[in-house]
Amino acid sequence: MRAVIQRVTQASVTIEGEVKSSIETGILILLGIEEADTKEDIDWLCNKIVKMRIFNDEIGVMNLSLEDVNGEALIISQFTLHASTKKGNRPSYIKAAKPGVAIPLYEQFLGQMEASLGKQVGSGIFGADMKVSLLNDGPVTIIIDSKNRE
Question: Which reaction does it catalyse (predicted)?
């Protein structure tokens, strides 16, 4: 499981001209799921994200977590995070999970994030053409891959 995490002051996702979800202070998570991902990847990644100290404390040092600041989360599925660009100019998405695998894992990830934060998280719609808008705070952008834990 691969995630691009962006600290935001606001973010939203629009589908077919309608805002599906929006958040204020928190994080936007672009989530890529691969065939080899499991519940263990979900647990590890959710825990890592919720506890990651990327929010400023009272003296401006990134020392607070998403749960410390009672922040919100917007989670968008994005299979292109598993693009392979080794050959030619057209990316290959062979490692990205097919919908039959990816959708249940995406839904489990949403549920785990809600349980970890104790609140509802925003989301897009798996496979939809989505327009994501954000105001990156910092900017702070971090990439995490559950297969690179060491």
Answer: a D-aminoacyl-tRNA + H2O = a tRNA + a D-alpha-amino acid + H(+); glycyl-tRNA(Ala) + H2O = tRNA(Ala) + glycine + H(+)
